[in-house]
Amino acid sequence: MVSFSAGLARRCRTHAGDLVPYASTRNSARDMDVIRAALGERRISYLGYSYGSYLGDVYTTMFPGRTDRVVLDGVIDPARYGPRLLRGTEAAGKHALRGWADWTAAHDEDYGLGRTGDAVLATVEGIQSTAERAPLRVGAYRVDDQVLPTLVFNGLSQDNPSAYGDFAQGVRELRRAAGGDPVSPSPWLAELLQFLLTGHDSAYGSAQTAILCGDGTAPRDPETYWRDLRRADPQDRFFAPVTNDINACAFWGPPRERPTTLRADLPALLVNATGDPRTLYSGAETVHRGWPSSRLITLHDADQHVVFGVFGSACVDDAVNAYLASGRLPATDVSCPRTRS
User: Kind of pairing, strands 141-143 and 136-138?
Assistant: First the structure.
């Protein structure tokens, strides 16, 4: 990963060296305000998912008084934001993996990965062990022991039967590949492998990388990441290797601006699931405490990243829609069960 990350940073400088220094959240916020002005709007309403929650934080700080209704869903703790944002999410990832494994075991007649959650997890571990010995052949792709954890990580952001089924089908194909069978990947697995291993959709990944690296510094010494990996749970073969690994930011130039010191308060509506494996619920709680006039909608018992209009909770969707329609925040925080509408 050291050579890959260094090469990615080098290619960004080679092909977009005149643009890379200006890729940052603060400049994205400035672009947003140019759009607001071009539309002739005095104020804008804002819905930000995941990274968009941090962009909303920065925009409302840089341009106070220019927002109306603000909804932040999948809330990033600004104090944790940076090139190593995902460190600390390992326990939530493992919880989500267990939830998927239990669901998959209950549907063993469809996927054949194991009749218990433990058996399903053992199947995934076995695939990783095979990939450590030699890359798996999956259609035109080669999946090694560094790619497989990223597939697992990416398969666990949505807590619903459709997403669980896509991931289970992908794991089923990976198990066949581990057994030496010829495999044509399912649409879900093919799309993810194409994104990870080719230049397909590189504009999205490149922009995300450039902004993250442009916002803050990362440790430069590869040994830092190796030490973190060695300190991680040795039984964690899927999450710690992803969250602690080196990335292109280690080879990036220094940011042109200091991080934004966020405003002291904002009457925003915050939304988060308690089991969010990407933006931890504790981050939403931290932002809520820092913004006394905000309200927090909590979706309980769901390993779901971003909720409004995605998970299918009438409790969440109705509360957010009421705020967007009226501009009035709920009188108190809102607690929602995981029941879907």
Answer: antiparallel
